[in-house]
Design brief:
Elements lengths: L16 E3 L5 E3 L16 E3 L8 H10 L2 E4 L5 H4 L2 H15 L4 E7 L22 H4 L13 E2 L2 E2 L6 H17 L4 E5 L13 H19 L4 E5 L5 H6 L2 E4 L4 H4 L2 H16 L3 E6 L23 H22 L4 E5 L28 E2 L6 E6 L2 E6 L4 E6 L7
Parallel strand pairs: 3-4, 4-5, 5-8, 8-9, 9-10, 10-11, 11-12
Antiparallel strand pairs: 1-2, 6-7, 13-14, 14-15, 15-16
Length: 398
Protein backbone atom coordinates (compact mmCIF):
# COMPACT_ATOMS: atom_id res chain seq x y z
CA UNK A 1 0.00 0.00 0.00
CA UNK A 2 1.24 3.46 -0.86
CA UNK A 3 0.39 5.12 2.41
CA UNK A 4 -1.57 4.61 5.57
CA UNK A 5 -5.02 5.94 6.27
CA UNK A 6 -4.75 9.73 6.01
CA UNK A 7 -6.19 12.42 8.22
CA UNK A 8 -9.24 14.45 7.20
CA UNK A 9 -8.68 17.76 5.41
CA UNK A 10 -8.26 20.41 8.06
CA UNK A 11 -6.64 18.13 10.62
CA UNK A 12 -3.24 19.21 11.89
CA UNK A 13 -1.99 15.74 12.71
CA UNK A 14 1.28 15.43 10.78
CA UNK A 15 2.46 12.24 12.49
CA UNK A 16 1.07 9.82 9.89
CA UNK A 17 3.72 7.90 7.98
CA UNK A 18 3.02 7.49 4.28
CA UNK A 19 4.90 5.48 1.68
CA UNK A 20 6.10 6.67 -1.72
CA UNK A 21 5.72 4.74 -4.97
CA UNK A 22 9.20 3.36 -4.40
CA UNK A 23 8.36 2.05 -0.94
CA UNK A 24 10.20 4.82 0.93
CA UNK A 25 8.53 5.85 4.22
CA UNK A 26 7.50 9.51 4.28
CA UNK A 27 7.17 10.88 7.80
CA UNK A 28 6.45 14.58 7.56
CA UNK A 29 8.02 16.97 10.08
CA UNK A 30 5.71 19.03 12.26
CA UNK A 31 6.08 22.22 10.20
CA UNK A 32 4.66 20.62 7.03
CA UNK A 33 1.02 21.26 6.10
CA UNK A 34 -1.60 18.62 6.75
CA UNK A 35 -1.93 15.95 4.08
CA UNK A 36 -4.52 13.30 3.34
CA UNK A 37 -5.51 11.02 0.49
CA UNK A 38 -9.16 11.25 1.57
CA UNK A 39 -9.76 13.95 -1.04
CA UNK A 40 -7.52 15.68 -3.60
CA UNK A 41 -4.86 17.57 -1.58
CA UNK A 42 -5.15 21.20 -2.74
CA UNK A 43 -2.72 24.13 -2.62
CA UNK A 44 -3.77 27.72 -3.42
CA UNK A 45 -1.84 30.85 -4.32
CA UNK A 46 -3.44 34.24 -4.97
CA UNK A 47 -3.24 38.02 -4.68
CA UNK A 48 -5.38 41.11 -4.95
CA UNK A 49 -3.30 44.25 -5.04
CA UNK A 50 -6.34 46.49 -4.62
CA UNK A 51 -7.81 45.15 -1.38
CA UNK A 52 -7.62 42.68 1.46
CA UNK A 53 -9.65 39.49 1.70
CA UNK A 54 -13.18 39.52 2.96
CA UNK A 55 -13.94 37.21 5.86
CA UNK A 56 -16.16 35.05 3.66
CA UNK A 57 -13.24 34.59 1.25
CA UNK A 58 -10.92 33.58 4.06
CA UNK A 59 -13.51 31.07 5.22
CA UNK A 60 -14.02 29.68 1.72
CA UNK A 61 -10.31 29.19 0.97
CA UNK A 62 -9.57 27.76 4.42
CA UNK A 63 -12.34 25.19 3.93
CA UNK A 64 -10.63 23.94 0.76
CA UNK A 65 -6.95 23.74 1.70
CA UNK A 66 -4.34 23.64 4.46
CA UNK A 67 -1.58 25.15 2.34
CA UNK A 68 -1.55 28.61 0.70
CA UNK A 69 0.72 31.37 -0.56
CA UNK A 70 -0.12 35.07 -0.45
CA UNK A 71 1.08 36.16 -3.89
CA UNK A 72 3.36 38.97 -4.98
CA UNK A 73 1.41 42.25 -4.61
CA UNK A 74 -1.40 41.32 -2.26
CA UNK A 75 -2.70 44.22 -0.18
CA UNK A 76 -0.34 46.71 -1.81
CA UNK A 77 -2.86 49.51 -2.31
CA UNK A 78 -4.51 49.50 1.13
CA UNK A 79 -1.32 48.81 3.11
CA UNK A 80 1.47 50.12 0.89
CA UNK A 81 3.59 47.00 1.26
CA UNK A 82 3.03 43.38 0.24
CA UNK A 83 4.86 42.28 3.38
CA UNK A 84 2.08 43.84 5.43
CA UNK A 85 -0.45 42.18 3.12
CA UNK A 86 1.12 38.83 3.97
CA UNK A 87 1.10 39.57 7.69
CA UNK A 88 -2.55 40.67 7.63
CA UNK A 89 -3.85 37.65 5.74
CA UNK A 90 -1.69 35.21 7.68
CA UNK A 91 -3.32 36.44 10.87
CA UNK A 92 -6.78 36.24 9.29
CA UNK A 93 -6.30 32.64 8.13
CA UNK A 94 -4.76 31.50 11.41
CA UNK A 95 -7.78 32.88 13.27
CA UNK A 96 -10.02 30.61 11.17
CA UNK A 97 -7.72 27.60 10.91
CA UNK A 98 -4.72 27.75 13.30
CA UNK A 99 -2.83 24.94 11.58
CA UNK A 100 -3.00 26.27 8.02
CA UNK A 101 0.42 26.91 6.48
CA UNK A 102 0.82 30.34 4.90
CA UNK A 103 3.75 31.30 2.67
CA UNK A 104 5.00 34.65 1.47
CA UNK A 105 6.22 35.34 -2.08
CA UNK A 106 9.43 36.80 -3.48
CA UNK A 107 10.85 36.55 -6.98
CA UNK A 108 14.37 35.21 -7.40
CA UNK A 109 14.99 36.89 -10.76
CA UNK A 110 12.57 39.77 -11.47
CA UNK A 111 12.50 42.94 -9.37
CA UNK A 112 8.81 43.35 -8.59
CA UNK A 113 8.71 46.62 -6.55
CA UNK A 114 5.88 45.57 -4.24
CA UNK A 115 7.80 45.16 -0.97
CA UNK A 116 9.77 47.37 1.38
CA UNK A 117 12.91 45.63 0.14
CA UNK A 118 12.29 46.21 -3.56
CA UNK A 119 10.23 49.42 -3.82
CA UNK A 120 13.28 51.34 -5.09
CA UNK A 121 13.72 49.05 -8.10
CA UNK A 122 11.90 51.30 -10.56
CA UNK A 123 13.06 53.72 -13.26
CA UNK A 124 12.12 56.68 -11.10
CA UNK A 125 14.00 55.56 -7.98
CA UNK A 126 16.88 53.27 -8.89
CA UNK A 127 19.49 55.98 -9.56
CA UNK A 128 19.07 57.22 -5.99
CA UNK A 129 20.17 53.79 -4.74
CA UNK A 130 23.53 53.06 -6.40
CA UNK A 131 24.31 50.22 -4.00
CA UNK A 132 21.16 48.34 -4.96
CA UNK A 133 21.60 49.27 -8.62
CA UNK A 134 24.89 47.35 -8.57
CA UNK A 135 22.89 44.18 -7.81
CA UNK A 136 21.14 44.23 -11.19
CA UNK A 137 21.97 42.58 -14.52
CA UNK A 138 23.52 44.86 -17.13
CA UNK A 139 24.04 44.44 -20.85
CA UNK A 140 27.61 43.23 -21.46
CA UNK A 141 28.05 45.58 -24.43
CA UNK A 142 26.28 48.76 -23.36
CA UNK A 143 26.54 48.54 -19.57
CA UNK A 144 22.87 49.53 -19.34
CA UNK A 145 20.43 47.77 -17.05
CA UNK A 146 18.56 44.97 -18.80
CA UNK A 147 14.78 44.84 -18.60
CA UNK A 148 12.54 41.80 -19.00
CA UNK A 149 8.77 42.29 -19.04
CA UNK A 150 9.40 45.86 -17.90
CA UNK A 151 11.40 44.78 -14.83
CA UNK A 152 15.08 44.69 -13.94
CA UNK A 153 16.80 41.40 -13.17
CA UNK A 154 18.96 40.36 -10.23
CA UNK A 155 22.59 39.52 -10.97
CA UNK A 156 23.08 36.21 -9.17
CA UNK A 157 26.83 36.34 -9.85
CA UNK A 158 27.13 39.21 -7.35
CA UNK A 159 27.66 37.71 -3.86
CA UNK A 160 26.57 40.95 -2.17
CA UNK A 161 23.26 40.74 -4.05
CA UNK A 162 22.75 37.16 -2.92
CA UNK A 163 23.30 38.11 0.73
CA UNK A 164 21.01 41.16 0.46
CA UNK A 165 18.27 39.22 -1.34
CA UNK A 166 18.30 36.31 1.11
CA UNK A 167 18.20 38.76 4.03
CA UNK A 168 15.12 40.39 2.49
CA UNK A 169 13.33 37.10 1.88
CA UNK A 170 14.06 35.89 5.42
CA UNK A 171 12.84 39.19 6.87
CA UNK A 172 9.61 38.83 4.91
CA UNK A 173 9.00 35.49 6.62
CA UNK A 174 9.77 37.06 10.01
CA UNK A 175 7.64 40.19 9.61
CA UNK A 176 4.79 38.26 8.03
CA UNK A 177 5.01 35.60 10.76
CA UNK A 178 4.75 33.21 7.82
CA UNK A 179 5.33 29.47 7.70
CA UNK A 180 7.80 29.88 4.86
CA UNK A 181 8.22 31.48 1.47
CA UNK A 182 7.62 30.74 -2.22
CA UNK A 183 10.52 31.76 -4.46
CA UNK A 184 9.67 32.27 -8.10
CA UNK A 185 12.01 31.81 -11.08
CA UNK A 186 15.17 29.79 -10.60
CA UNK A 187 16.84 30.57 -13.94
CA UNK A 188 19.13 33.38 -12.79
CA UNK A 189 18.77 34.98 -16.23
CA UNK A 190 21.45 32.60 -17.46
CA UNK A 191 20.96 33.72 -21.08
CA UNK A 192 22.03 37.26 -20.14
CA UNK A 193 25.44 36.03 -18.96
CA UNK A 194 28.35 34.74 -21.03
CA UNK A 195 28.19 31.04 -21.85
CA UNK A 196 31.32 30.34 -19.82
CA UNK A 197 29.56 31.65 -16.70
CA UNK A 198 26.41 29.52 -16.96
CA UNK A 199 27.67 27.03 -14.33
CA UNK A 200 28.41 29.94 -12.02
CA UNK A 201 24.83 31.16 -12.51
CA UNK A 202 23.48 27.79 -11.38
CA UNK A 203 25.80 27.86 -8.38
CA UNK A 204 24.73 31.42 -7.60
CA UNK A 205 21.04 30.52 -7.60
CA UNK A 206 21.80 27.54 -5.39
CA UNK A 207 23.76 29.74 -2.99
CA UNK A 208 20.88 32.23 -2.76
CA UNK A 209 18.52 29.45 -1.82
CA UNK A 210 20.96 27.86 0.62
CA UNK A 211 21.52 31.21 2.36
CA UNK A 212 17.79 31.79 2.57
CA UNK A 213 17.11 28.36 4.04
CA UNK A 214 19.80 28.87 6.66
CA UNK A 215 18.29 32.25 7.59
CA UNK A 216 14.67 31.10 7.92
CA UNK A 217 15.65 27.94 9.77
CA UNK A 218 14.70 24.26 9.61
CA UNK A 219 11.10 24.75 10.76
CA UNK A 220 10.09 27.00 7.85
CA UNK A 221 9.18 25.89 4.30
CA UNK A 222 11.29 27.03 1.36
CA UNK A 223 9.30 26.41 -1.85
CA UNK A 224 11.14 26.73 -5.18
CA UNK A 225 9.19 27.18 -8.40
CA UNK A 226 10.38 24.99 -11.29
CA UNK A 227 13.59 24.26 -9.42
CA UNK A 228 13.54 20.56 -8.56
CA UNK A 229 15.76 19.66 -11.52
CA UNK A 230 18.52 22.06 -10.35
CA UNK A 231 20.60 20.04 -7.92
CA UNK A 232 21.82 22.84 -5.59
CA UNK A 233 18.26 24.20 -5.44
CA UNK A 234 16.93 20.71 -4.73
CA UNK A 235 19.37 20.29 -1.85
CA UNK A 236 18.47 23.62 -0.24
CA UNK A 237 14.69 23.57 -0.62
CA UNK A 238 11.83 21.83 1.18
CA UNK A 239 9.23 22.02 -1.58
CA UNK A 240 8.91 22.42 -5.34
CA UNK A 241 6.28 23.58 -7.79
CA UNK A 242 5.78 22.29 -11.31
CA UNK A 243 4.15 25.39 -12.76
CA UNK A 244 3.17 24.11 -16.26
CA UNK A 245 2.73 27.52 -17.82
CA UNK A 246 2.79 26.50 -21.49
CA UNK A 247 1.97 23.16 -23.07
CA UNK A 248 4.71 23.28 -25.73
CA UNK A 249 7.37 24.03 -23.13
CA UNK A 250 6.37 22.55 -19.79
CA UNK A 251 3.94 19.72 -20.41
CA UNK A 252 4.74 17.80 -23.54
CA UNK A 253 4.28 14.05 -23.23
CA UNK A 254 8.01 13.61 -22.61
CA UNK A 255 8.10 16.35 -19.99
CA UNK A 256 5.10 14.94 -18.13
CA UNK A 257 6.83 11.57 -17.81
CA UNK A 258 9.91 13.34 -16.47
CA UNK A 259 7.67 15.21 -14.02
CA UNK A 260 6.26 12.00 -12.58
CA UNK A 261 9.76 10.58 -12.16
CA UNK A 262 10.95 13.76 -10.48
CA UNK A 263 7.91 13.71 -8.20
CA UNK A 264 9.12 10.33 -6.96
CA UNK A 265 12.57 11.76 -6.25
CA UNK A 266 11.01 14.65 -4.33
CA UNK A 267 8.85 12.36 -2.21
CA UNK A 268 11.66 9.85 -1.61
CA UNK A 269 13.68 12.77 -0.20
CA UNK A 270 10.84 13.69 2.17
CA UNK A 271 10.07 16.93 0.35
CA UNK A 272 6.81 18.60 -0.76
CA UNK A 273 5.55 18.87 -4.33
CA UNK A 274 2.94 21.15 -5.92
CA UNK A 275 1.61 20.21 -9.35
CA UNK A 276 0.06 23.30 -10.91
CA UNK A 277 -1.98 23.66 -14.08
CA UNK A 278 -4.33 26.33 -15.37
CA UNK A 279 -7.20 26.46 -17.82
CA UNK A 280 -6.48 28.32 -21.04
CA UNK A 281 -7.79 28.90 -24.53
CA UNK A 282 -5.22 26.76 -26.29
CA UNK A 283 -2.84 25.28 -23.72
CA UNK A 284 -0.69 28.41 -23.72
CA UNK A 285 -0.19 31.13 -21.15
CA UNK A 286 -3.13 32.33 -19.07
CA UNK A 287 -4.86 35.22 -20.80
CA UNK A 288 -3.83 37.77 -18.18
CA UNK A 289 -0.16 37.16 -19.03
CA UNK A 290 -0.52 37.91 -22.75
CA UNK A 291 1.20 41.10 -23.82
CA UNK A 292 -0.92 43.88 -25.30
CA UNK A 293 -1.02 43.93 -29.08
CA UNK A 294 -1.39 40.20 -29.56
CA UNK A 295 -4.38 39.12 -31.57
CA UNK A 296 -6.22 36.72 -29.28
CA UNK A 297 -9.35 38.29 -27.78
CA UNK A 298 -9.59 38.62 -24.04
CA UNK A 299 -11.96 36.19 -22.39
CA UNK A 300 -14.27 37.19 -19.59
CA UNK A 301 -14.06 35.94 -16.03
CA UNK A 302 -17.18 33.82 -16.55
CA UNK A 303 -15.74 32.20 -19.67
CA UNK A 304 -12.53 31.29 -17.89
CA UNK A 305 -14.45 29.92 -14.93
CA UNK A 306 -16.39 27.69 -17.33
CA UNK A 307 -13.19 26.61 -19.09
CA UNK A 308 -11.67 25.71 -15.72
CA UNK A 309 -14.56 23.40 -14.92
CA UNK A 310 -14.45 21.83 -18.40
CA UNK A 311 -10.70 21.27 -18.45
CA UNK A 312 -10.12 20.21 -14.84
CA UNK A 313 -10.61 16.48 -15.41
CA UNK A 314 -7.68 16.18 -17.80
CA UNK A 315 -5.22 18.08 -15.66
CA UNK A 316 -6.33 16.48 -12.43
CA UNK A 317 -5.75 13.07 -14.04
CA UNK A 318 -2.21 14.14 -14.98
CA UNK A 319 -1.57 15.02 -11.34
CA UNK A 320 -3.06 11.78 -10.02
CA UNK A 321 -0.88 9.60 -12.25
CA UNK A 322 2.24 10.90 -10.54
CA UNK A 323 0.94 12.00 -7.14
CA UNK A 324 3.00 11.09 -4.09
CA UNK A 325 2.62 11.73 -0.37
CA UNK A 326 2.71 15.49 0.26
CA UNK A 327 2.11 16.25 -3.41
CA UNK A 328 -0.58 18.92 -3.72
CA UNK A 329 -2.63 20.00 -6.73
CA UNK A 330 -3.11 23.63 -7.75
CA UNK A 331 -5.73 24.65 -10.30
CA UNK A 332 -6.01 28.27 -11.42
CA UNK A 333 -5.92 30.26 -14.66
CA UNK A 334 -3.88 33.14 -13.24
CA UNK A 335 -2.41 34.33 -9.98
CA UNK A 336 -5.15 36.69 -8.84
CA UNK A 337 -7.77 36.00 -6.22
CA UNK A 338 -10.37 36.07 -8.98
CA UNK A 339 -8.66 33.46 -11.19
CA UNK A 340 -9.63 30.25 -9.45
CA UNK A 341 -9.34 30.15 -5.64
CA UNK A 342 -12.93 31.25 -5.06
CA UNK A 343 -14.43 28.75 -7.51
CA UNK A 344 -15.96 25.43 -6.44
CA UNK A 345 -14.84 22.18 -8.06
CA UNK A 346 -16.80 19.08 -7.12
CA UNK A 347 -13.87 16.81 -8.09
CA UNK A 348 -11.93 18.14 -5.09
CA UNK A 349 -14.60 16.75 -2.78
CA UNK A 350 -14.89 13.27 -4.22
CA UNK A 351 -13.58 10.45 -2.00
CA UNK A 352 -10.15 9.61 -3.43
CA UNK A 353 -8.36 7.21 -1.10
CA UNK A 354 -4.76 6.21 -1.16
CA UNK A 355 -3.06 5.00 -4.33
CA UNK A 356 -2.95 1.23 -4.59
CA UNK A 357 0.22 1.12 -6.68
CA UNK A 358 2.51 3.19 -8.85
CA UNK A 359 1.21 4.22 -12.28
CA UNK A 360 1.36 1.67 -15.10
CA UNK A 361 2.42 2.46 -18.64
CA UNK A 362 0.06 0.46 -20.84
CA UNK A 363 2.69 -0.21 -23.51
CA UNK A 364 6.37 0.86 -23.56
CA UNK A 365 6.00 2.44 -27.00
CA UNK A 366 2.76 4.27 -26.24
CA UNK A 367 1.76 7.18 -24.03
CA UNK A 368 -1.18 5.74 -22.13
CA UNK A 369 -0.90 5.46 -18.36
CA UNK A 370 -3.24 4.15 -15.67
CA UNK A 371 -3.34 4.24 -11.91
CA UNK A 372 -5.69 2.91 -9.25
CA UNK A 373 -6.74 4.64 -6.06
CA UNK A 374 -9.08 3.27 -3.43
CA UNK A 375 -11.99 5.27 -4.86
CA UNK A 376 -10.81 6.29 -8.33
CA UNK A 377 -9.45 4.77 -11.53
CA UNK A 378 -7.32 7.09 -13.66
CA UNK A 379 -6.38 6.83 -17.34
CA UNK A 380 -4.48 9.33 -19.48
CA UNK A 381 -3.13 9.43 -23.01
CA UNK A 382 -0.53 12.20 -23.09
CA UNK A 383 -0.04 11.89 -26.84
CA UNK A 384 -3.71 12.36 -27.69
CA UNK A 385 -4.24 14.67 -24.70
CA UNK A 386 -7.14 12.67 -23.33
CA UNK A 387 -7.98 11.46 -19.84
CA UNK A 388 -10.67 9.85 -17.73
CA UNK A 389 -11.23 9.60 -13.99
CA UNK A 390 -13.76 7.03 -12.85
CA UNK A 391 -14.90 7.86 -9.34
CA UNK A 392 -15.94 4.72 -7.49
CA UNK A 393 -18.74 4.69 -4.99
CA UNK A 394 -17.44 4.30 -1.47
CA UNK A 395 -20.19 1.76 -0.85
CA UNK A 396 -18.91 -0.32 -3.76
CA UNK A 397 -15.29 -0.34 -2.60
CA UNK A 398 -14.23 -3.66 -1.04
Amino acid sequence: MLGSVGCLRGSQDTTEVYTTSNGVPFEAPAHYPAFSWDEVPVYMMFADGQRLLQNSEVQKIASETDFICIEKNHGLQPLGDAVLGLAHENQAFKAVKPGIKVLGYLNGALTYPFTRYTRMLTDAKIDAHPGIKAYLVTDAKTGELVKTRGLYGYNVLNPDMRAWWSDAAADMVRVGNADGIFIDQMHGFSWLHPVEKRDAVVAGVGDMMAQLKAKIGPDKILLANNGAHIEPVFEASDAFMFEHYKRSATHTKEKLLQDWQLMEKIADAGKICIYRFGASQDGGLPQEAIQEGQSRPRLTQDVYAALAKEQLGLYLALYLIGAQPYAYFQWNWGWKLQTGPLEHYSEFHQPLGQPLAKYTRVHPDQWQFTREFEHASVWVDTEKWEAKIEWKSVADTP
